[in-house]
Design brief:
The chain is an alpha/beta fold and 236 residues long. 47% of the residues lie in helices and 12% in strands. It has one domain: P-loop containing nucleotide triphosphate hydrolases (Rossmann fold, 3-Layer(aba) Sandwich), CATH 3.40.50.
């Protein structure tokens, strides 16, 4: 873990619920990383790092040996005992108090609801985009973390069930995307969809003045960052 963040008390650190924090919320492919880079503010260890350092060791798993689907399965097991998910790990941490400070990120209704209750000084930026947009973004990035085995043909159609229309898949193929790669990325999003409802954070934060919802199909990273800076300046 980075300096200024720990899971045990230390000099100069305060319980994270006492610190001001901006929490990014959103599913894979909504643009959290691009938004965080555009914002340019200090970051806490991100979701993946927290899972690697806090969750997977409790399950006896080696992060380097897991693909996305396996990670989803393990974190689903962990959430069965910890309904607040990664928000529980975040709320249990200690941090050097400073502002601005960003955490990337939470997912789903239960995590966001837990954070809303237990992190009273946190603000939330919920980034959203349709699944077809998120899929194409996932196809465009080359992250070894996104590895998952898949075959073309029938498996592509099987992966699409309940996630995306056939016409949208055909459009991706016309644009030159490999069918096996489309199937692989669809399986990632489908596995995530089992665990997290994209509309869940909206329900958890209904009426919350500390929450801002941003559509990343109509706001690029720089636009979204400017919108959030203005929103937070009004909150000060």
């Amino acid at each position: 873990m980075q300096d200024g963040f720990a899971f045990l008390p230390a000099a100069g650190l305060v319980p994270l619920p006492e610190a001001r924090l901006l929490i990014l919320v959103g599913l894979t492919g909504v643009g959290k990383s691009s938004f965080a880079r555009a914002l340019g503010w200090p970051l806490l260890p991100n979701r993946r790092e927290l899972v690697d350092a806090y969750v997977l060791p409790q399950l006896g798993a080696d992060p380097d040996e897991l693909g996305r689907e396996e990670r989803f399965a393990l974190t689903r097991r962990w959430r069965a005992a910890h309904p607040g998910g990664l928000a529980e790990a975040l709320a249990a941490a200690y941090v050097r108090p400073r502002w601005p400070l960003v955490f990337d990120g939470l997912r789903g209704e239960a995590e966001v609801a837990y954070a809303h209750r237990h992190l009273p000084r946190a603000s939330f930026v919920v980034l959203q985009a349709p699944l077809a947009v998120r899929l194409e973004r996932l196809l465009g990035r080359r992250d070894a973390f996104d590895r998952v085995a898949a075959k073309a043909g029938e498996e592509l159609l099987a992966a699409a069930q309940g996630t995306i229309g056939v016409s949208e898949i055909e459009e991706l193929l016309r644009r030159g995307h490999d069918a096996a790669e489309v199937a692989a990325k669809l399986r990632i999003l489908a596995a995530e969809q089992i665990n997290y409802d994209q509309e869940g954070p909206r329900r958890a934060l209904a009426g919350c003045r500390r929450a801002l919802f941003v559509d990343t199909t109509s706001h690029g990273p720089e636009q979204a960052a400017a919108l959030v800076r203005e929103w937070l300046s009004d909150e000060d």
